[in-house]
Amino acid sequence: MIRASLLAASATAIALAAPAMAQDFAITNATVATGDGSAPIANATVVVRGGKIAAVGADVRPDPSLPTIDGTGRWVTPGLVAAVTTLGLVDVNGVESSNDTSASRARFNAALDVTPAINPASQHIKVGRANGITRAVVSGGASNSIFAGQGAVIDLGDDPSPVTKAKAFQMVTLSESGARIAGGSRKASHAELRNALREAQDFAAGRWSGDGNLLTRADAEALGPVVAGTQQLFIEAHRASDIRTVIALGKEFPRLRLVLVGATEGWLVAQELAASGIPVMAESLQDLPERFEQIAATQSNIGRMRAAGVNVSINADSIRFTDHLKQHAGNLVALGRMSGAAGLSWGEALATISSRPAEAVGMGGKIGVLKPGAAGDVVIWDGDPLEVSSGAVQVFIDGVEQPLDNHRTRLRDRYRDLDESDLPKAFDW
Amino acid sequence: MPRVTRALAGLGSALALAACATTSGAEAGAETASASKPVSPQFDKNPYPSTYRPYPGVPTALVGATVFDGTGAQLDNATVLLRDGKVEAVGAGLNTSGYAVIDARGKFVTPGVIDIHSHLGDYPTPSVPAHSDGNEATSPSTPDVWSEHSVWPQDPGFTRALANGGVTSLQILPGSANLVGGRTVTLKNVPSRTVQGMKFPGAPYGMKMACGENPKRVYGSRNRMPSTRMGNFAVNRQTWLDAKAYAKDDKKKRDLAKETLQGVLEGEILVHNHCYRADEMALVMDMAKEMGYRVTAFHHAVESYKIGDLLRENDVCSAIWADWYGFKMESYDGIPENAALLQQAGACVVIHSDDENGIQRLNQEAAKAQAAGARMGIAIPDGQVVRWFTLNAAKAMGIDSMTGSLEPGKMGDVVLWNGDPLSVYSRPEKVWVDGALLFDADDPERRPVSDFELGQQGEGDVK
Question: Which residues, 6+ apart, have CB-to-CB distance to A8 below 8 Å?
Answer without folding.
Answer: none
